Amino acid sequence: MTTLSIPQDLAVIPCSQCSAIAFLRVPSNNSIFQQFPDTATGPGAPHYEFLWRDAWASSLPVTPPATGFFTSVVQVVVAPASRGSITLASADPFTFPIIDPAFLTSEFDVLVARFAFKSVRQFMNATSWQGFNLGLAPDSIAETDEEIDAFLRNNTAPIWHPVGTNRIQSKDGKEVGVVDSKLLVNGVTGLRIVDASVFPFIIGGHPQATVYALAERAADLIKEQFAREVPGQCWTETPRYTGISREKSDSASKTRIHLSYFGQI
């Protein structure tokens, strides 16, 4: 993390929530892949993501310094191997379930997060940042792998993209799911689930467009069923989307780690 020294005439500028976003891969020759299989969704899909914010940003209960100007880097593991779980706490449907996100329980995720941490630090120490960066935020000073891992575990939070709690069954039927290919809940009549919980794994990016595609497909399925049950109805066709299938799933959620660079005029 680094201190920002900003010229007075640039101290007030417009900005969006994130000024830049980058999706990146761990190099294929990295020793990580000698120990673990690649969890990315494809040969060009990312392992981690950086989001830059022109402000102090953290979803953790951390009080920012009273003075200074900041840029924050949110680091996200977008192809996690860790899998969490949701367990019923009782037979009462109104009792909150037991949710265990199981962040960083896979050593693969720890190694990817550590690699990303070192990468963003190297980037922020580049010559082009000289004159802006003055130092790391105090809670981000970690040098050894052990210190970095401890920082990651103490600064990890969800990024609101959980999936897999109601996963769709695999196309070949070998992997049992909560819903079938028509998004109907197995063993229940007339109940569909149309949200990201049916995804069997986390996509290598933000899920919004994929959720839209799922909703479009669900609309087609519902219209087709209604047309069969109520003959004579006319429906306008909407675009078709190919189903998603992959072998492993379980509940999963991306994790993010906040790294805050700070500065003063």
Automatic annotation (TrEMBL):
Boundaries of every Glucose-methanol-choline oxidoreductase C-terminal domain copy: 80-215
Coiled-coil ranges from the UniProt annotation: none
Name this protein carries in UniProt: Glucose-methanol-choline oxidoreductase C-terminal domain-containing protein
Highest taxon above the source species: Eukaryota
Organism for this UniProt entry: Sistotremastrum niveocremeum HHB9708
Co-factor(s): FAD
Family, as annotated: Belongs to the GMC oxidoreductase family.
GO MF assignments: flavin adenine dinucleotide binding; oxidoreductase activity, acting on CH-OH group of donors
A Pfam family annotated for this UniProt entry: GMC_oxred_C
